[in-house]
Amino acid sequence: MKRVLVCGAGGFIGHHLVSHLKSLGYWVRGVDLKHPEFEASQADDFIIGDLRLLDVVQQVINSGGIIDEIFQLAADMGGAGYIFTGDHDSNVMHNSGMINLNIIDEATKANVKKIFYSSSACIYPEYNQLDPDNPKCSEDSAYPAAPDSEYGWEKLFSERLYLAYHRNHNIPVRIARFHNIYGPLGTWQGGREKAPAAICRKVAEADDGGTIDVWGDGQQTRSFLYIDACIDSVMRLMNSDLIGPYNIGSDEMVTINQLVETAANVANKSIRINHIDGPLGVRGRNSDNELILKDLGWAPNFPLHDGINHTYHWIQSQINNH
């Protein structure tokens, strides 16, 4: 039985990943500062621990038998309201940096067979994402580096950290750059939620014919990948001989106004938008999937409308139960 460690198992993607790994028959240890928020983890062993602390990392990797593989998703992160204000920059860089420095070093010492690292589309240069209709986010466009946030700079540093350990110590690494992963069981209020969850919440709370607030003019573009498609691509990459980094995202680019329209359609409501000032991030971003399609044969197969349908009704049920 394969024994795996999921770092960040209390978070949205990590929690879904644990459930998927259990369905494949793996023995799974999860670690996080918190348990999953909306349902119990299926992990065989769940450790509440701070991965910034070396002794915690040593414990989760070395205790109770050999860990074969690690999925490293733990990070100090959140939506635009957390990342782009600048108020949390030192925490984001220090916390995530310490986590990755600890994990890759201890994984190497423990002869872990393979480690997956979740990077982010936030590593891409701001100068290639100024035109909302034609953003450039191919994997080879990451340099010269100029991310628009310290979150993106830390992710880029950690990509290089994992690749350096791979070169110098032969530890097999797999790196993916996630583009806006969303779905049920994710944070939907409180300031760290991502755009799809925030929009679904606002639409769910609005009356038919009502108005919701949206940051900026709503013409900024993004793509959003449903969680099931994300997990599928992570497993394919992990089970391949490919290193990456690879984009893992949808190439179905929409404006934020169109995202609102999609959620309103799902809710069967007429919604007006009140555009207000707020943190925005880059003007345009879309996942360039040419490389992962060529190398891995993977392409997203979950339309935005279907994913928002699942997500909206889950968030609506959360609001109804509050």
Description:
- The chain folds into two domains: 3-181 and 225-248, NAD(P)-binding Rossmann-like Domain (Rossmann fold); 182-223 and 252-286 and 303-321, UDP-galactose 4-epimerase, domain 1.
- It has 322 residues and is an alpha/beta fold.
- It is 39% helix and 16% strand.
- The protein contains ten helices and 13 strands.
- β1, α1 (12-23) and β2 form a beta-alpha-beta unit.
- The strands form four sheets. Strands 3-2-1-4-5-6-11 form a seven-stranded parallel β-sheet, with helices on both faces. A two-stranded parallel ribbon has the order 7-10.
Short description:
The chain has about 325 residues and is of the alpha/beta class. About 40% of the residues lie in helices and about 15% in strands.
**Major sheet description:** 7 strands, parallel
Order of strands across the widest beta sheet?
3-2-1-4-5-6-11
Q: Rounded to an integer, what's the Rg over CA atoms? A: 19 Å
CATH fold field value of the largest domain: Rossmann fold
Topology of helices and strands:
Layout lengths: L2 E5 L4 H12 L3 E6 L12 E4 L5 H9 L6 E4 L7 H4 L5 H21 L4 E7 L29 H20 L3 E6 L2 E2 L12 H11 L5 E5 L5 E2 L2 E2 H12 L7 E3 L5 E2 H12 L4 E5 L13 H7 L7 H18 L1
Helix pairs in contact: 1-7, 2-4, 4-5, 6-8, 6-10, 8-10
Key descriptive features of the protein:
Rossmann fold, single chain, 2 domains, two-stranded parallel ribbon, 322 residues, 10 helices, UDP-galactose 4-epimerase, domain 1, alpha/beta
